Amino acid sequence: MLRIAVPNKGSLSGPASAILHEAGYRQRKESKELVTVDPDNEVEFFYLRPKDIAIYVSSGKLDIGVTGEDLLIDSGAQAEVILPLGFARSTFRFASRPGAVKDIADLAGRTIATSYEGIVAKYLDERGVEASVVHLDGAVETAIELGVADAIADVVETGTSLRNAGLEVFGEPIMRSEACVIRAKGNDGDDPKVQQFLRRLQGVLVARTYVMMDYDCRAEHLEKAVALTPGLESPTVSPLHNEGWVAVRAMVPAKGAQRIMDDLYDLGARAILTTAIHACRL
Ligand SMILES: Nc1ncnc2c1ncn2[C@@H]1O[C@H](COP(=O)(O)OP(=O)(O)OP(=O)(O)O)[C@@H](O)[C@H]1O
Ligand SMILES: O=P(O)(O)OC[C@H]1O[C@H](OP(=O)(O)OP(=O)(O)O)[C@H](O)[C@@H]1O
Ligand SMILES: [Mg+2]
Description:
By secondary structure, the chain is an alpha/beta fold. It folds into 3 domains: 2-87 and 178-189, Periplasmic binding protein-like II (D-Maltodextrin-Binding Protein, domain 2), CATH 3.40.190; 90-176, Periplasmic binding protein-like II (D-Maltodextrin-Binding Protein, domain 2, 3-Layer(aba) Sandwich), CATH 3.40.190; 211-276, Alpha-Beta Plaits (2-Layer Sandwich). The chain has 9 helices and 15 strands. It has helices at 10-22, 53-58, 69-75, 117-126, 142-145, 160-164, 192-209, 222-228, 257-267, and strands spanning 2-7, 35-38, 43-48, 64-68, 79-84, 90-96, 111-114, 132-135, 151-156, 168-177, 179-184, 210-218, 236-239, 245-253, 270-276. The strands form 3 sheets. A 6-stranded mixed β-sheet has the order 2-3-1-4-11-5. A 5-stranded mixed β-sheet has the order 8-7-9-6-10. It has a 4-stranded antiparallel β-sheet with strand order 13-14-12-15. Strand 13 (236-239) and strand 14 form a beta hairpin. The site of 1-O-pyrophosphono-5-O-phosphono-alpha-D-ribofuranose has 11 residues, from strand 9 and helix 6.
């Protein structure tokens, strides 16, 4: 049975369970459940604190886990990313009162509050900056106002939390992060059960980012139309009953689909349809 770690709380928890559910796996029914068995798929899910997942996975007790890249790096655990999942995208940045700290070198002798002291200590060490790092479990933005720290290092997505606290980022982003599937380092990567799990998740990611597009166009416009909708391998082209017309079918990125439909229409294509893809194996 494949043993998989899933975040039990916080920003990662909902989207992680949602993608697993979409991939056909049974997920827990209520948030207090710590373990769920999916006998049909021979998988056991362990709902763990997001910060602990890399530790469990690196120990080899669990085969794989869903976590954030920043949490993986922060833990220092011997585990690696095997599939980025495209949600919980964030940057990790230093911030302070406007102008109070101008760059990283300015942090020497100061105090930095963070929930990710593993990332911060490594970053400062690599740059030879000696500063004190104070661990806080969350809401670190408030640490400056309350005089606990001169600067903070925290997850930034929209920047709203920083703005609300009257803080500004300084220096380059320390790292970028998104949710990912991880496994212990040194694994050969050939486990067929893990490969099947990854294919299922990849199928969901593709289904989320692509739509199926169908349209009819005159045969003489086909090459231009196909350039707009090249598909993954190559589009399917079938003859229509009306001579000189063809039907075309191709997957296109969902994001640009409306623009492609406009361009196809301008080329003379008609009956242009897009439909959602629910699941796929590439
Ligand atoms: N606002 C956000 N936008 C995008 N990703 C975020 C956001 N906040 C946290 N994350 C990501 O979620 C992961 C942190 O999850 P975790 O559950 O530990 O924190 P949390 O969502 O802040 O919950 P908690 O309330 O327990 O602190 C990290 O990978 C982080 O980059
Ligand atoms: O840039 P933003 O869009 O504002 O998002 C970033 C904020 O979201 C997270 O906080 P969360 O709400 O999880 O609270 P926490 O600080 O207690 O973890 C993170 O720690 C930041 O504070
Ligand atoms: Mg948080």
